[in-house]
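Internal QA ticket QA-208
Title: Verify multi-chain structure generation after dependency bump
Assignee: T.L.

Test input:
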Amino acid sequence: MKIYVPRDAAAKALGADEVAEAVAREAEARGMSLQIVRNGSRGMVWLEPLVEVEASGRRLAYGPVQASDVPALLDGTLDSLGAVEDIPFFARQTRLTFARVGLNDPHSLDDYKAHGGLAGLRRVLDMRGEAVIDELKASGLRGRGGAGFPAGIKWDTVRMAHADRKYIVCNADEGDSGTFADRMLMEGDPFCLIEGMVIAGVTVGATKGFVYLRSEYPDAIEVMTEAVELARAAGLLGDAVLGTGPAFDMEIRVGAGAYVCGEETSLLNSLEGKRGVVRAKPPLPALEGLFGKPTVVNNVLTLATVPVIFEKGAEHYASFGLGRSKGTMPIQIAGNVARGGLFETAFGMPLGELVNDVAGGTASGRPVKAVQVGGPLGAYMPTSKFDTPFGYEEFDGQGGLIGHAGVVVFDDSADMAGLARFAMEFCAVESCGKCTPCRIGAVRGVETIDRIAAGDAAAVPLLEDLCETMRDGSLCALGGFTPYPVLSALRGFPEEFGPARDAAE
Amino acid sequence: MTTQAAEPAPEALAEIIEAHTHLEGPLLPILHAMQEAFGFVPGTAVPVIAKALKLTRAEVHGVISFYHDFREAPAGRHTVKICRAEACQAVGGAALSEAVLSKLGIGWGETTPDGAVTVEPVYCLGLCACAPAAMVDGKVMGRADADRLTALAGEGAA
Ligand SMILES: Cc1cc2nc3c(=O)[nH]c(=O)nc-3n(C[C@H](O)[C@H](O)[C@H](O)COP(=O)(O)O)c2cc1C
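Actual output:
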C-alpha cells in the first residue's frame, strides 16, 4: 500500500506534515507495511491536505484529511472523494505543463521517466539547434512570466549571439499575489524545470543555468536544491548531458524579498550581487544579460512547458488555445473563492466561467464584486467583463492583462478605493528607485487617493494625470502598470472613491 | 530589553566568506549565510566582505539595505511574517494583521519588549488559495488566525 501525502507548501500550511507523521505512527503501531510518498499537490487547495491511498491497482483520494482522521483512513472507513481524475475540478483540465505534478514522487527520476520525463530532451539532443528553434516557434509558446514574449524568438537571439559564455536564467521570483504555479511546479515536478533548462542550454549554447528563487518559498528551495543534486548524480547535469550531450550545469540562488527583482534586468543585477535596480533596455538581456553575456531569462512555467512540447511535438501543443494564445495556461484561482487552486486549461475559457463555474464563486457566499487578474499590476475586472476569454490579446482589449495568470476573487465587501491605494503603496515600497515616475509617482499616488477619499473632487483628474505619467514614463512595468489596478478600480467603481466622485462626473 | 547582538568572531566571518568566493556573484549567498549563522548581517562584516569581494563599503551596505530580507540587528526569538498582499486582503488579511499587532502591542517590523516575537510584513507566500497566510519561524501557515499567530508570544515569555 502506498499513501501519498503532499509536501507542497499549501498542503503543509494546512497540516500535511502532521498527517504524514500520524500515518507513519499509526502504521507502525498496527504493524502495517506501507510506503509514504510526499508528492506535489494535485492543485485542489480547498481539499488539502488531500491524501491518496494506492492499493490493489486503485488510487483513491481523501480530503481534507486531518491527523485525527488517520485511524479511519487506515481502517478504510473514511469517506473517499474517489479518484482525483474524476473530481470535476480536475476532470475539466488539460494538463500539459502540470501533467506530473502531484502524481509522482518529486525526487524519483524513475517516476519522472516513467511518465514521459526526458523524452523531450532526448529528441532535442538529436536535433540541430535551428530545428529546435523552429519547433519552439511553431508551438506558439509565449513567456508565462507576464509579458508573453515568444520564447522561440528570445532563444534564437541568444543562440545566434557570439560569446565565450552564455547563461540560462530561470525567473522563479513569483512575486505576484494570487500566483503559486511556479511554486507548485518546483515542489511537485522539479525535474521538469531542470529538463526545460537543459533543453534551453543545449539549444542556445549556454553551459550554466541559474534559478533565481524567492526566499519566501523555503519548501521550493529545498525540493529544487535536492533535485539538482540528484540530476547531477544521474548525469542529467554535468560535463556531458545524459552522457553524450554538451555540458550544462545549474545552481539555485535565493532572492532576498524584493518584488522588483522579478523584473528581469533587476533580477540579473541581483544575481550579480548588486542592488536589484532595473537596467535600461536596450541592451536586451538576450545579448547583454548576466555578467554582460547573452542570457535567456524565462519564467518557470515557460521553461517547464518546453519538455512536453518536445515530447509530444509542437503541433500537439499548438492545437490547444485561442488565437495568438496557444497551448494551455496553469491558472491560479485564489482569494475569496470557494474552490481555489491550480486549474490548467487551454486558453480561451471566459473569466466568468472560471470564477463562477470552476471555482464556485466566493468562499463567503456573497456576490463577487471584482477579480484582479495578473497580480498587483493587473486590472480589477468587474463582473461586467466576465465574458472576456482568457487570452493575452483578449484581456488587453478589455484594459486588463493576464500576467502570470493569477485570478484573485473579491466579494462585495471589498474596498476598491482601499485596494487602489494599496496598489500605489505597494509600488512605493517596492520601487527600485531608479526612475522618478515610479519612485515619486507612487508616493504622490497614495496622497492623491487620500485627497479623493477626503472629498477633494479636483484630485480625481490629478490621479488620472499621474497614472498617465507613470504609465508612459516609468522604466519598467512596476511603475508602468500600477495604473492598471488603480484606474480599473476608479473607473469600475467610481462611487467608492469618496463623496467627491459624483461631483466630478 | 532586546537581545544583545553578539559580536561574531572575525574567523567566523572569514569562514563564511571563504566558503562562497568561488561562486559567480557571491554577495547575496554570503549575506544569506551570515544571516543564517547570526540571525542578522553584522555591521562588522561589511568591511570584511567589501575587502574580500573588492567592493567599497558603500556598495556592500547599499546591497544590504536594498533587500527587505537582510536585518542589520537581531530579531526576536520567533519571527512571524504575515502576508499583506491582495489575495490575503480578500479574506480578511488586514484585520488579521491588525489583531496580531494590537494583541502584541507592536507595529510592523517591531519586536515585543520581552524579545519573544518580531512581526514582519511579507508580500505573498504563494499560499493564496488558503489565505490569509503567514509564516512562523520559517513554517508556513494557511487560513491563519490571530490566536495561533500570537501563541508564541506566551511561550516566549514563559
Ligand atoms: C515589477 C516586475 C516584476 C516581475 N516579476 C516577475 C516574476 O516574479 N516572475 C517572472 O517570471 N517574471 C516577472 N516579471 C517579468 C520579467 O521581467 C520577464 O518578462 C520574464 O521573466 C521573462 O520570462 P518569460 O518570457 O518566460 O515570461 C516581472 C516584471 C516586472 C516589471
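Spot checks passed. The two ends of chain A are 67 Å apart (CA to CA).
Status: verified.
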